[in-house]
Write a structure and sequence with these properties.
Jelly Rolls, 35% strand, elongated
Length: 265
């Protein structure tokens, strides 16, 4: 009994020593691996779809990106090794022609100036309504020193509110047969006061053969007369002066032609 107990004790001690001897071996072979999480990390740059008009340059986008050319409707991508591949067209093939549509309903007749009063233009300005001619005389002859004047009787007989063109000729005949050593000056006034009258004239020297041969000076004038603001019939006066002293008098007479016009520009 005692011998058996001793054997059992020896076996238990041997087993305990064996466990202690093997334990460091287990510790030496033990290793721990750090696992990586799935998906992108916080430092990743996401890919995207870019767009622009025309093909992309090499510097646009990063590897993995796509690019749409909105002008030519081409798509590029994905970008690889910092280069864009050849594009793919987003356009489909041309479709076939559709069926011809039905004829439309006939429209109504159009209106023309010849078959309808509708569509007429605005009325034009009034044209010439009258033309008259006449003569006039002067109250006194032209004599004396430079600046002295001779005034005509009134002439024209123009209507209120009308516009006129007048051609005017005034002749000064010398009482002798000598040359006229002066130049005549013309001034036009109105019985209606100050109204718009534009006057352009020139003076010429010639000869008159009515009673012998006489030297004459002639004033030829063109007048534009605006009587729009005049409220009554009106006439004109012609006043002639000389630039130099006169040795003998000049007898003056006048002629005019008057034309009414619709507008003055």
């Amino acid at each position: 009994m005692t011998r058996s107990s001793s054997k059992i004790r020896l076996v238990a001690i041997f087993c305990a020593l064996t466990l202690f001897a093997v334990q460091p071996g287990f510790a030496a072979t033990k290793s721990v691996s750090k696992l990586k999480s799935a998906g992108r990390t916080a430092n990743s740059i996401p890919n995207t779809i870019l767009n622009g008009t025309g093909a992309p340059s090499k510097t646009i986008g990063i590897n993995g990106d796509f690019y749409i050319d909105t002008k030519n409707l081409n798509i590029y991508g994905p970008k690889k090794k910092n280069a864009w591949p050849l594009p793919i067209s987003l356009r489909g093939t041309a479709g076939t022609d559709g069926k011809a549509g039905n004829a439309g309903v006939a429209g109504v007749d159009g209106k023309t100036i010849t078959n309808s009063a509708v569509g007429g233009g605005t009325a034009g300005a009034s044209g010439i309504t009258s033309a008259t001619v006449g003569v006039f005389t002067f109250i006194n002859p032209l004599t004396g020193t430079a600046g002295a004047g001779a005034q005509s009787h009134n002439f024209g007989g123009m209507l209120a509110g009308k516009k006129y063109l007048m051609h005017l000729v005034i002749s000064g005949v010398h009482s002798s047969y000598e040359d006229i050593l002066t130049t005549l000056i013309l001034r036009i006034t109105s019985t209606a006061g100050v109204i718009p009258i534009t006057t352009a004239y020139f003076v010429s020297t010639g000869k008159s053969f009515n009673v012998g041969t006489r030297i004459t000076q002639n004033i030829s004038a063109e007048l534009v007369i605006d009587g729009t603001l005049v409220v009554d019939t009106f006439n004109l006066y012609a006043t002639v002066t000389a630039t130099d002293d006169l040795a003998t008098s000049l007898t003056l007479s006048g002629y005019f032609s008057l034309t009414e016009v619709g507008s003055i520009t």
